[in-house]
# Entry
Amino acid sequence: MKSDSVILSGKGVAKIFGFGAHKTVAVDHVDFSFRAGEVISIVGESGSGKTTLAKMLLGLQTPTAGEIYFEGHLRDIRSHRQKREYWKNIQAIFQDPFSAYNIFRRIDAVLLDCIRMRGGGRLPYEQKVEMMREACRFVNLKFDELTNKYPFELSGGQQQRLMIARIFLLKPKILLADEPTSMIDACSRATILDMLMALRTEIGMTPIFITHDIGLAYYVSDSVYIMERGKFVESGSADSVILTPREAYTRRLLNDVPKLHEEWDLSTV
Amino acid sequence: MRHMLRQLLQSGRFLIGFGIFASILLTVLIYPLFINDPPLEIVSRGTFLAPGIYVNVYDSMNFSTHYTLILDDAVAQRVGARLNDEDRLAMQEWLLAAGVLEGEINIEDTAALIELWNSNFDPSVRVPGMTNADRNYYIRLTDSLEGLLATEGAIVAVPNQTTGVLEETGVINQSDYVNIGEVPNFRVLPLGTDNFGRDVLTELVSATGTSLTIGFVAGAVATAIGLLLGLVSGYVGGFVDDIIVFITNLFTVIPSFVLLILISFSIGQEQRGAFTIAVVIGLTSWVWTARAVRAQVISLRNRDHVNLSKLSGHSIAYILAMDILPYIASYVVMALILQISSGILAEAGLSILGLGPRTTEVPTLGLMMNWSMIYQAHILGKWWAYFPVILVIALISFSMNLMNTGLDRVFNPTLRG
# Structure
């Protein structure tokens, strides 16, 4: 799976909100390069700027400074057509499945959007249904039970699985998963992660996990970036960062992981 | 959706507001089906006829079958109608001034009073302190007393075609009655007539319809402009937003009514139809809809479902129509209702100043106010010319605001309780 080609990289990427006294530096000139096929995690506590970075990578927000390179070329997504092309390659799973869907649109419409995005808008309807059925089967949902339902009629775990079915249909090169399991109970969490990893093998994409949970990062990723106050303070392979942390911040994050058989260290909370 | 409808039907405010509004609307729609007189037809000579049933005197007199009813209080009522308590007191006053002793005057005894009056009253006598108007009043009063206590009937005479001599054709006794259903010509004027002698009720119904149309057009125009600018400004942001906010602020600081007056004035009387006025009202009142919609859109544009729609490759127009508009639809409907109600009020305000639609084609509520004001109905005490109009304007406004509050309670759960 791993290869040496860099799929997404950035130089001096920054996002600054406001001016003067009200200036907030959300992302402070970070450099990164993500290799194709790797599983990448960006770990940091709340307010460290990871979601802002994710939105910039997705092209939903424009960086204040710096350049983002996609497959070696400077990313240019100024027009709607360019954005659309870019979004065929990079997709996202959001943190809160309950607010991620338009409550006025049915599940079918959500999935049909994905087929159209892949250029399948003119396919016969039966074939579209077959594609949707396959995508739902992949995430253990039954399309025939979902059709003509609204997303909010599903449970949180089902909604997040539907989100993965979307990705299955879209087959992007990069998947940005912004806290994909934080709103879901522990049992569903492992299922969702396993499905994401299976999807990675299935369509050969590069997943980027944005998370505050360093345990999850260790469980899934090859490379880990630790983010503190808008900066990457530590990065490297998952083993080197998590087993031999150099930064105090990384150690603190590791301490915050709840453990069953040890007394919890609440001094940093 | 069904749930919201059910909640709406449980909201008392909405139901009352809707009931009032629906009955006004139904009246406007149904009334012309039964009474299809032209609303601006002049039906009376003379202005401001009081509300009532107008029976043709000629028809009721000529009618061959008169019915005799024996009613005890008929005489008392007849005398009372022509000589009321005020007149009696005025007569007493005159008689006292003319030197008649107070003990001789009994204003309760009609026959004695009239006799005393006829023997003493002299129109040429100048009583000190009496105005000319008073003098004329006494002369009119004296004339009306003539034959008041007569018991014989009135003789109807018709001049002979050839000789020109009056020939008696019949006698109308005091106890004669006609059945109003058998009189071929009578007109019910429930709200009397206005300064031009037009039937106020027919005019009012037609005016309400026109005013509602003006309100709907004005509200639709204002909401459409405000919605479009608000959506674009809020969603696109940046430079576009700056420009739109600048324009909006410009319109906010100029009082829209002043703007409305200036535009209406410069359009000129000839071009000012009801529709034009409605559009002008709409063009000057979109400001706060735009601001409110913009604020709502800004809070929505960074939601995940909008991001997801972007990632699905949808265009800005599609996102605005499918991902933003449905979320603020309830809000927009409420804004529309308020815009309609304020459009009706704005038309009334303009028309009172004489800048409303031109007066020859259609009546509007504002024009009716304008007419009754110009012809001093309020000073003359002709309440039927303006009070029903005020009542209708108030009811429309009240019912729409009530509906709005009801909707607000359903769509905005934090207000429930």
